[in-house]
Amino acid sequence: MKIERCRACQSRQVVQFLDLGSQPFANALLDPDFKEEKQYPLSLSYCKECSLVQLDYTAVPEELFSNYFWVTSTSSTAREYAKQFYQGVKTYIKEDRRYILEIASNDGTFLREFKNHGYEVLGVDPAKNIAKQANEQGISTRVDFFQKTVAEDIVKEKGYPSVIYARNVLPHVADLSGFTEGLACCCGDDNLLVIEVHYSGKILEELHYDSIYHEHLHYFTLTSVMNLLKHYGLFVFDVSLSPISGGSVVLYVSRKERKSSAFLENMVTEEERLGYNTLERWKEFAKTVEKHKKELVEIVKAKLDEGKRIVAYGASARSSTLLNYCGIGENMVPLVIDQNPMKQGHLTPGSHMMIGSAETILKEKPDVILLLAWNFKDEIMDILRNQYGYKGEVIIPLPYPPHIECLEVTSDGI
Predict the structure, then answer these.
(1) CATH code, domain carrying 310
(2) Whole-structure pTM over 0.90, yes or no?
(3) Cα–chain-centroid distance for residue 113?
(4) 230: helix, coil or strand?
(5) Could you report the per-residue pLDDT of 128-184, keeping only the tens digit for each?
(6) What is the dihedral of CA 286, 291, 297, 302, to 10 degrees?
(7) Measured at the alpha carbon of residue 70, what is the angle toward residues 67 and 75, in degrees to the nearest 5?
(8) Domain that residue 198 falls in
(9) Tens of pLDDT along 267-313?
(10) Same-domain check for residues 166 and 241
(11) Which H helix or E strand runs over 371?
(12) Facing residues of 123 across strands?
């Protein structure tokens, strides 16, 4: 459905500024013998009233999230960050209420850190296949789309949690009102709400347009997310930085207004100075996206003209947007490595690259690797160099501009 109003403030003053064409759902991996593939409009608009950047079209949530391929524990970066996240949050926990609630908990990687330290935990996630994994591994998970009625059920049954956190989920939510009401419902007078979102400042500065896909309906600055939360009686009092998604912010929120930290105030001031909440800045972003497409395709075609064989690494959701917008498909890059066994044996949506394991694909000794999961660059470059002994060129598509790096083996590969 095409939106007629801003999802946050209901204003009709929404202006389109970027069109990425029609694309399949980013996580809609295909069986090799697929018969048809649906595609949907993918474009961005800016709300002149509240400055929220958002998709023009809303997909049916059940089609996007009921069966899911992203598993948090696949990434060592995410596993390590889960430990840091626990350390950052535990200082707010009251010892007489050792109960943690996570919204969009996936396979329970982040809840596991709390459970390992003696906390009672509960996750809520709509993906039946992923929630099943979490429950089998001892992380109690309710299969549901979180909203006010679900929140009321949880509070009635278990009381207020000491901490509620929602990581990388607010941008996915079509019903911002119902979801945010649910968060407010779970907040008592003295507990903590923690919200993590991919930061629009990073998206703008480093051209993260590959983070734009049908699951991500909203792209928040501090100003736009604080305005949304304040409308429902929730107040941000501090912020920290996260490495997830190539650069996210973690917001610390309460029902009672608290004095804002100096770091939060400085970030809000800086994003205003840099124009992150202006339509003009987002129009500049759109122009650079077009420029990036041309430059990346030129790099790939130049390597193919040299007779080089290219494979990709990282069949992530964000890679789907990049590949389909740039027109890079299996005729140019036939294979893509991914560490998630659930993805292997499938084709990437739209671009139709065969997904396989590193062990299988690297045996064919490719000349060049297109690093689609560039946001995990350090982790993956280390794996390629030291675990598989890859010695060759790696195309780094983002942050802008795209460029090539050469890997040298620093220890014995397999």
Answers:
(1) 3.40.50.720
(2) no
(3) 21
(4) helix
(5) 888 999 999 999 999 999 999 999 999 999 999 999 999 989 999 988 999 999 999
(6) -170
(7) 160
(8) 65-261
(9) 999 999 999 999 999 999 999 999 999 999 999 999 999 999 999 99
(10) yes
(11) strand 368-371
(12) 102, 141
